[in-house]
Amino acid sequence: MSATLAYGVTADNVPLTRMLIQRRELRPDDVEIAIAYCGVCHSDAHMAHNDWKTSIYPMVPGHEIVGHVTAVGSAVTSHAVGDAVAVGCMVDSCLRCAACADHEEQHCENGAVGTYNSRERDTGKPTAGGYSQRIVVREHFVLSMPSSLDLRHAAPLLCAGITLWSPLRRFDAGPGKRVAIVGLGGLGHMGVKLASALGAEVTMITTSPSKGEDAKALGAHHVLLSTDPEAMTAAASRFDLIIDTIPVTHDVGPYVGLVARNGKIVVVGAIEVLAPIHAGMLLRNHRSLVGSAIGGLAATQEMLNFCAEHQVLPNCEVIAMQDINTAWARMQANDVRYRFVIDMSTLAA
Ligand code: NAP
Ligand code: ZN
Questions:
Q1: Model confidence at 1, in pLDDT bands (50, 70, 90)?
Q2: Residue nearest to ligand 1 atom 11, measured at CA
Q3: What's the gap in Å between 272 CA and the centre of ligand 2?
């Protein structure tokens, strides 16, 4: 075991504070990473505040991790000391079940292990995330960072990026497709960038009139204000694919009404009870209402390579570790454009 500085919470109603945690000794297939940057996902605050009733304390959040390899186990072949690497929302799974064989490790039949607030498969010890100086991760769950991706801005790709990439790819976002993204936050802004880089016609659906110009700068062709009833009526049955990133419970009905014939609306944001929906809305146009959870390792690597090739990078506000509580409060008040990223070199200060 080796001690590592981290920031975390000790209960659901207290601020994040500095703490010391233990990382395991390297197993043969482990990679040790010095964390350079970690993105701040809305899920971090949901988890810390026990919104999903699954929280384990003390908790060190963070699942958008980029850094450099500092040591490798004896059996590691895909990463070497000094390599730029990344870790997303998972650090282990069985790698033997049908879901893992299909490269959907997040749906592992024996339980994927989350980067934090989860338990190691063999020891049952709680996992601790990226708000820390170092992490030890099984080789399969460590991604390669293409050298042309700027590490200072790339961290949010590991959750926000893959969570949008996965449904965009699965449902063929591309030329000739009308795609709408609901909610211009961390996930949503990556949705706009990725869908437009894939060649789709992209509409940003937002509650914030002030974000309209930003949405266009990010690559949206159109902006639709969801609080404008006339504009919403005019957009009825318009979109082949809608991705809804709203982070709280809400009525999806108004968005379902915007789905075109045989189109889909994908809920990725609200991990909550949703307001009832009239099934007639789904019968009409043969609409599908589906969910999507992050993405597997192969898809995540594909997304990183695509982002490197097309220079798709998140818009980040880089902060010091000590500013994390203010950053969380601002994120919850919808005041971030569009992702906070912690510069981990500030942790020891
Ligand atoms: P975020 O940065 O806070 O962005 C959410 C956006 O949703 C806001 O910027 C806002 O956009 C809109 N919004 C907020 N409150 C709203 C409300 N009451 N009604 C309508 N719109 C509202 O959050 P995020 O980091 O993108 O995360 C979004 C959600 O995805 C979180 O709940 C997170 O836990 C979840 N998540 C899911 C997965 C998955 O695998 N499915 C992965 C990661 C995260 P406008 O101002 O444009 O309206
Ligand atoms: Zn996340």
A1: confident
A2: 183
A3: 15
**Ligand approaching nearest to the C-alpha of 268:** 1
**Region class of 312: left (phi > 0), else alpha (psi between -120 and 50), else beta:** beta
User: How far is Cα 136 from Cα 333, in angstroms, rounded to an integer?
Assistant: 33
If you measure from the C-alpha of residue 124 to the centroid of ligand 1, how many angstroms do you get, rounded to a whole number? 31
Residues β-bridged to residue 33: 69, 135
Eight-state DSSP code of residue 157: G
> Cα(183) to centroid of ligand 1, in Å?
6
Own/partner pairs for 100-103, CB < 8 Å, 24+ apart? Answer: 102/296, 103/296, 103/297, 103/298, 103/299
- Name 87's Cβ contacts closer than 8 Å, sequence gap at least 6: 33, 63, 65, 115, 130, 135, 137, 141, 142, 143, 158
Q: Is the pTM of this model over 0.85?
A: yes
264 vs 286: CA distance, rounded Å: 9
pLDDT at 137 over 90: yes
pLDDT in tens, 157-210: 999 999 999 999 999 999 999 999 999 999 999 999 999 999 999 999 999 999
Q: What is the DSSP letter of 274?
A: P
Pocket of ligand 1 (CB under 6 A): 41-43, 46, 159-160, 163, 183-188, 206-208, 211, 245-248, 250, 268-269, 271, 292-294, 331, 334
pLDDT at res. 71: 98
Rounded CA gap, 259 and 88, in Å? 31
